[in-house]
């Protein structure tokens, strides 16, 4: 069967290369998934073939293509505002998708190992076994599923189908509606409760009592199956125990999916770009390490994420058996999406809906504007890196060569005048200095443009997730309004409505705390980032000045 | 009649503009000479039309084109080595060419005034009147002309025709053969004698007893004919009298031609490039001023040129009547080309031909190599200027805009956290700083790349003239050998040969002195140039550092 994929994002291929431009929604015939480095090869409707990033497309079933309903564009804010239905998928869907993607090498582009620890055959059956979610004791997951499937005709979540209706997500679900409607009967132990408190800036997540950090260090190439398969492992060392754990990209990827399905009111920092640029493997691996460090730093500084069980398990587990047990437990987590709010303890005070609306609208405007400017900084960093390593370097070298050749030409006529020799040597050294400055331009991006780009890769991810967060909150508010209408029509008890109102407030408190957390984080973080960037730029231009001053001294008698 | 021109040099048109590439030797049909700024419009044999620099072509007569003999390529050293015959033209030819070029606006590209002080009609008749050279008292110019025309079948000067045989130079001539053969009977007054002496570095021109300098200042737009015609006048002030004279480009051009026909063993510094680049009239005019200053400086520092009568007249004459008288006198100068050597007083010692050959060969090699590297530095300066004012500026501005927009986006969400305001303002200022650095890149070439380019424009001209200088010397040496053969065949008296040998030595002394002068000049001059250039570069990068440091301080609390 000829596999088909659909573009989720626009991608502009580099002209003159094997890359091919694709447009969101475009259907392509898949020709080769074994290209490596995150690239797939395909053919478009015009018959052109070329490479595109695997991450920019999704596989589709033939029916999707025929009925033309498989056009889930990349979630953008505007769309999310209309189709604000819950867009994350449940753990069950996800495993299914993971199993499928393991087959087609989805995470193959990061290392050579497409297999699990156990091997491809076992892996598949292992995951297939997990696909139907085993309910935890005390969690009426079947009730929940029933409830939701009964509810598919209501406004709430009715648009989910347009976004996730494909073979990987056959049934639409809204995580957490059971919480809102009070049908979720889970007791959260005190140790797992998360507090939202009020400080001078508004409602905030209760600060981390014992802050810690985690270093992502020296990626190592490891291999298994007697060296047939090799992969990169990153060494993580948390400051609270100083015990190093080794994690591969697929572990990060698995963690990221768990976090995304669990925390729908908290933007999860992005993993490294799959289409990262770099000329050597070592540079690629180092850039990914830096971006993983950014991911880890953001996680550590977040009061909710930093204490989440799946994250702690990821950071600390060193035993393979315990790893698998923890993995299964995380995949069975019942408190996903809005259901997670049952863990929250918020101030008593009821929130004014108009105030909440005002803040979310302001946030919406802000995020829209940030999205553009964060992408523009990110693109600019990429462009500057290319400029420094390309034309800037080349220009300096041309200047250097012109001077060097001048020195050479002048030295052809030496001998009678003593001072000429000193001069020609100085001119040749000037040539050498500019060639060296060219090399400095080549090296420089790793000190300024690339780290800045890595930071803005993080912000691009956070800012890009915010529309979903706002959409999820908006969904809850609309559900609340629906309940208010039902009560007005005497179809819902006032007591039940009050419960819904209270729980909607909990959801709003969570959003407000997250908005404030993002604000506080970025204020400190962007300041430090800009300072670091400017210091590196200053160092660079000072080095040029030093180089030229040393060169100038060569002309002294 | 359709005028035709032939390309003297290769010119590569800027792609995407109205410019057209032309190849040396190519014949083009002239369509329009009224384009201005030194450009003409033409059509090539493929039927393509476009603009090219007027200075890169010469007009040809229809016969030339038909017989295909009008292919005088730009003189290069290799060719000059073979066709070493005297390539300058006499004053008579020159006036003829000047008159013709006045008609077609040859020097029209420098100012709007194609007319002389008197007006077009008088100018033409005035110059036509001068075309037949009036012999000076005591100068047997008719004998000289007769001698030369009798000699056209000899080796000496036989290749001249391929270089200058066009309607502007109907008869071939070798300036100065009469000197070599002892038929020039001129008494040079002691005050006009030029001495060559021996110092530790070899034979040199006797140094200038009272060095002076001349400033070329503040070009002014002047006009005549009640403002219909306007032109640029440069103000020259010699240090020896402090009396300012006003000179237009056509005066410089006239001076340059006089110098070139008189001093065939001394490279004459070039006038400003006609195809100088610049976006505004003011910039163009200023670049020309700087290049004129380079010309003037070189003249002042040259022991022979600085004291020449025509130059002194150019520098000091303030009276229109005296100006015309001096002009006529210069145009009637008998001591042109090798004949000028009758003014020289050289050491008694006879020169070893093998030593002279060694030095000229070394000079030949050196000049060949210098020609390439001087052109390459010159092109590099032009390229760097374009890079600084184009992509470097634009890149900085893009960086600036990305930061500025980021600051703007962040400021949308201000109000509750006080420190944000300080941060967004700092980020906006960072954006502003990079936009300002972009402007600095735009401004910078006038402090480093353009002056460096102007200096190397001078060297390009000097180095480019050296092949002719060497060729002129070589011609004299060959003539000497011819005389030696004639003597061996008893067709020439030994006493007459000894006179020829002595005079050939005078010519060789002049060449050696000039080679040494150029060496000494460039050693000092290139050193100062490089130092000045590097200081400007250092200042520039220091300014960037300063700008960034000030910006960094904005982030402090």
UniProtKB/TrEMBL annotation, chains A, B:
Keywords: Cytoplasmic vesicle, Membrane, SH3 domain. Residues 1-62 form the SH3 domain. InterPro entries: AH/BAR_dom_sf (IPR027267), PX_dom (IPR001683), PX_dom_sf (IPR036871), SH3-like_dom_sf (IPR036028), SH3_domain (IPR001452), Snx9_fam (IPR014536), Sorting_nexin_WASP-bd-dom (IPR019497). The keyword Membrane applies. It is found in: Cytoplasmic vesicle membrane. Residues 212-322 form the PX domain. PANTHER family: SORTING NEXIN. Belongs to the sorting nexin family. This is Sorting nexin.
């Amino acid at each position: 069967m000829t596999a088909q994929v659909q573009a989720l994002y626009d991608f502009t291929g580099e002209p003159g290369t094997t890359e091919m431009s694709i447009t969101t929604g475009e259907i392509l015939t898949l020709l080769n998934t074994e290209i490596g480095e995150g690239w797939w090869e395909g053919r478009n409707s015009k018959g052109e073939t070329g490479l595109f990033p695997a991450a920019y497309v999704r596989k589709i079933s033939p029916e999707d293509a025929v009925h033309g309903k498989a056009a889930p564009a990349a979630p953008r804010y505007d769309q999310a505002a209309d189709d604000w239905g819950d867009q994350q998928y449940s753990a069950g869907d996800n495993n299914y998708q993971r199993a499928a993607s393991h087959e087609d090498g989805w995470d193959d582009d990061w290392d050579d190992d497409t297999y699990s620890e156990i091997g491809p055959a076992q892996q598949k059956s292992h995951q297939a076994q997990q696909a139907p979610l085993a309910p935890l004791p005390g969690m009426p997951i079947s009730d929940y599923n029933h409830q939701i499937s009964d509810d598919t005709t209501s406004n709430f979540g009715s648009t989910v189908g347009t976004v996730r209706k494909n073979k990987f997500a056959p049934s639409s679900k809204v995580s957490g509606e059971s919480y809102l409607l009070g049908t979720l009967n889970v007791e959260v132990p005190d140790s797992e409760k998360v507090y939202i408190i009020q400080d001078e800036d508004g409602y905030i997540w209760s600060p981390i009592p014992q802050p810690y950090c985690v270093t992502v260090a020296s990626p190592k190439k490891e291999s298994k199956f007697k060296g047939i398969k090799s992969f990169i492992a990153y060494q993580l060392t948390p400051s609270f125990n100083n015990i190093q754990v080794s994690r591969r990209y697929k572990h990060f990827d698995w963690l990221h999916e768990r976090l995304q399905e669990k925390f729908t009111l908290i933007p999860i920092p992005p993993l490294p770009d799959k289409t990262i640029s770099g000329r050597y493997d070592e540079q690629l691996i180092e850039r990914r390490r830096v971006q993983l460090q950014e991911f880890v730093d953001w996680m550590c500084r977040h009061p909710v994420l930093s204490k989440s069980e799946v994250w702690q398990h990821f950071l600390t587990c060193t035993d393979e058996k315990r790893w698998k047990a923890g993995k299964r437990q995380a995949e069975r987590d019942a408190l996903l999406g809005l259901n997670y709010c049952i863990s929250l303890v918020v101030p008593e005070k009821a929130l004014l809906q108009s105030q909440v609306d005002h803040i979310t609208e302001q946030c919406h405007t802000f995020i829209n504007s940030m999205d553009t400017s964060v992408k523009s900084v990110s693109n600019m960093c990429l462009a500057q890196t290319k400029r420094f390593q390309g034309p800037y370097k080349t220009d300096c070298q041309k200047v250097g060569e012109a001077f060097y050749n001048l020195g050479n030409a002048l030295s052809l006529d030496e001998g009678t005048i003593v001072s000429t020799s000193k001069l020609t040597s100085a001119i040749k050294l000037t040539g050498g200095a500019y060639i060296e400055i060219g090399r400095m331009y080549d090296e420089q991006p790793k000190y300024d443009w690339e780290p800045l780009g890595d930071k803005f890769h993080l912000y691009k991810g956070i800012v890009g997730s915010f529309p979903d967060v706002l959409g999820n909150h908006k969904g809850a508010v609309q559900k609340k309004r629906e309940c208010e209408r039902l009560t007005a029509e005497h179809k819902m008890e006032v007591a039940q409505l009050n419960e819904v109102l209270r729980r909607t407030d909990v959801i709003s408190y969570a959003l407000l705390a997250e908005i404030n957390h993002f604000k506080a984080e970025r204020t400190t973080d962007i300041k430090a980032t800009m300072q670091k960037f400017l210091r590196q730029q200053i160092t660079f231009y000072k080095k040029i000045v030093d180089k030229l001053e040393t060169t100038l001294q060569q002309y002294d008698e």
